Amino acid sequence: MRTAAAMAGAVDLSGLKARADAKAVQEARAAAGQEPDGAASAGPGVVDVTDQSFPVEVIDRSANQLVVVLLMAPYSEQSQAMAAVLGKLAADDGGRWTLARVDVDGAPGVAQAFGAQSVPMVIAVAGGRAATAFAGAQPEQAVRQWLDDVLSQLPPEFGGVGGGAGVEGEADAPSDPRRDAAEQLAADGDYDGARAAYEAILHADPRDVEAAAAVKQMAFFARATRIEPGAVGRAAAAPGDVEQILAAADEELLGGAPADAFARLTAAIRTASGDDRTALRTRLLELFELFDPADPVVLAARRDLAAALF
What we know:
Layout: E1 11-12, H1 19-31, E2 46-49, H2 54-60, E3 66-72, H3 77-92, E4 97-103, H4 108-113, E5 118-119, E6 121-126, E7 129-135, H5 140-152, H6 177-187, H7 191-204, H8 209-224, H9 231-237, H10 242-254, H11 258-271, H12 274-288, H13 296-309
Parallel strand pairs: 2-4, 3-4
Antiparallel strand pairs: 1-5, 3-6, 6-7
């Protein structure tokens, strides 16, 4: 299965000559009460998503259920093929997860939020966070395997089978010296050393989700603890200084005010452009990764981010 970075064989969003004509035809057919060419009507477990409905239909819904987002175009045969495959699998799974179909022409903000460069693109979203993705048309068997892999990593409340209670007697398991050493480095304030130790653990077992989370946490602490106190005040004095805004958000998060940090970055994203906007958005997404994806503060901030991007 290809990842979202592998776009070979997908349709280039920036160079489709037929876009305007095809869209006009689809609008005319819709006005006449007909289904779009090649498009299936939304069936059980399937919703059509716009820029306006994205925060509710995808972000909010994903707090309790896996949402599989399909970025597509009605004139793309590969898109229609993936819509048919995913629609069938959604019906087969009887509401275990929801398929969110997104016409990238009608919802450019959603496409931008996912950084899409081509269609079809399929993204698994759980807890307001994109978990994994692939691009291009895939056969049903491959998509079924991908879905099963995603669901196997999710807790039951998301419709998955993972995340259950530990095996009886797990509390009596011997400690891991490598993890103990990493935790001690963190306790001593050596966040760079702790990050390196957790990275070694993760390298030995890429499936170690605790080590993966710890790597991100240590990277944040290493960066945030180097900030000279007073970053919030400096950012207020220089509202257009992206570096000061980033530092101020780190200071707020380190001080236990994540909502303020998220709001600061989101507000800056609304007015920024180009590389500055990319840097702010990237940092905000990195900070989200430090929290439980179902945290209400994170969910609210993701909704605000979606609104800022659209």
